[in-house]
Amino acid sequence: MIRLAATSQRDPVERARSVLRRHLVATSALVVGIMLSMLLAEWALTRRAADRMAEQVSTRVARTVSELVTGADFGDEGQSHTALDERIRSFLEAGTIVRIKVWMVEGDQVRVVYSDDPRTEGTVRAFSSDLARRLDAGETVVLPVPDDAEHQFESALGMDLREAFIGFVDRAGNQLRLEVYVPVQSRELTANALIVQAPVIGVGLVLLVVVLSWGSLSLAGQLKTLAEQRHRAVLYGLRSREEERTGLAQRLHDGVVQSLAGSRLALDSIRGRTAADDALLRRVAEVLGDDTRALRELLAEYVAVSGAATLASDLQRLADAAGTPRVDVRVVPGVQLDDESADVIRRAAEEGVRNARSHACAARVQVSLEPRGGGAELAVVDDGRGMASASEAETGHVGLALVGSAVRSVGGRLSLESPATGGTTLRIWLPSPAAGDPRAPLPLP
């Protein structure tokens, strides 16, 4: 089965507005996406820079504190406590550190042998071989403070902390680990950077939206102009074709038809001289009479009409003048069309009947017009030979191509179906006038 279909928007202005709306929505979505991406990227970069700064500060603080504890003897816990309390008091009071712990390695475990908070002394945990390897290599390891039971007192402070580990050996030769808790401001640095940079990014993107919107408005105006020009061009082409046909019909009516009719009357007046001449003249008169009737039927079909009020009678007149093939017309009450749409329906029906007679060699054509889906649907169905290919349907009928353009220009849909079993169906749907439109006509009878 061959199927062709075409659709379009009715109003060029509405089409331009629709394009503008889609463009603005796409532009806004793109801008929002870009802004979010830039903010996320900026947040990640700023947080990374703040973390590097926090690690550097924690490393320097831990190394400074480690110089104070390396000379102590943690085998004598009382002596080490007294000495260290004095040494680190200034760091604690200044807020350079908020906690200090000294771990002693005992086999595969470590135990807190000193802390400025006595509640944490005696804490035992498993020995981390990876951490030990890094510390034994002389590395200062800085880590975020985890939120777990071991660090419950540090977590309760509600501060952004880093724990810095340094391995050392005390005066008595004990293997020890220094853990210093250093307050950092990576969160504040990140937030402050975003507070400064987000408005700059936002203003830049807003300016971008303004520029793109201006371009969208300009594009919409151009699309509107092009759509209106195309609409006028299609109507001009259709009307020019009708004017040409009307002019040809008038010339035929005033010249050829009158001459044929007069010739037939002249032949009738001279019949009867001889039997042979009489038979010949009768035959010529019959041919002239048939040609005259055919031309008058064709002229009746080509008479230019307009307006929605006469659409039903025009379709019936088209059926009455058709001769062969036989044309049946059915108009269902309730169809509403304006004059322009009614004229498109009329031309489409004429084109469908003409194609059925000239190309499809049809014996019968059914033309129906009925309300459907908020508009009017015209169907022209013939029982002819159909179309051999889609290319024939697309390029073989100039009149049908003009009708298709006219249908699309008033917001309608056109479909052409030709099943393998033969026959062709031309179906056209046009929207009814908008409710409340003062130009809207009354329903067709």
Shape label:
rod-shaped
Strand content: 15-25%
Radius of gyration: 48 Å
Q: Kindly, what is the distance between the CA atoms of the first and last residues, rounded to a whole number of angstroms?
A: 35 Å
The number of E-state strands comes to 12
Number of helices: 10
Characteristics:
445 residues, disordered N terminus, alpha+beta, 10 helices, six-stranded mixed β-sheet, six-stranded antiparallel β-sheet
Question: In words, what does this structure look like?
Answer:
The strands form 2 sheets. This protein has a 6-stranded mixed sheet with strand order 1-11-12-10-9-8. Strands 4-3-2-7-6-5 form a 6-stranded antiparallel sheet. With 445 residues, it is an alpha+beta fold. 24% of the residues are buried. A hairpin with a 2-residue loop joins strand 9 (364-372) and strand 10. Residues 1-10 and 435-442 have low confidence and may be disordered. It contains 10 helices and 12 strands. The protein has helices at residues 12-69, 77-94, 129-136, 152-155, 186-269, 275-302, 311-322, 339-358, 390-395, 398-409, and strands at residues 2-6, 99-106, 109-115, 124-126, 141-144, 161-169, 175-183, 326-331, 364-372, 375-382, 413-418, 424-431.
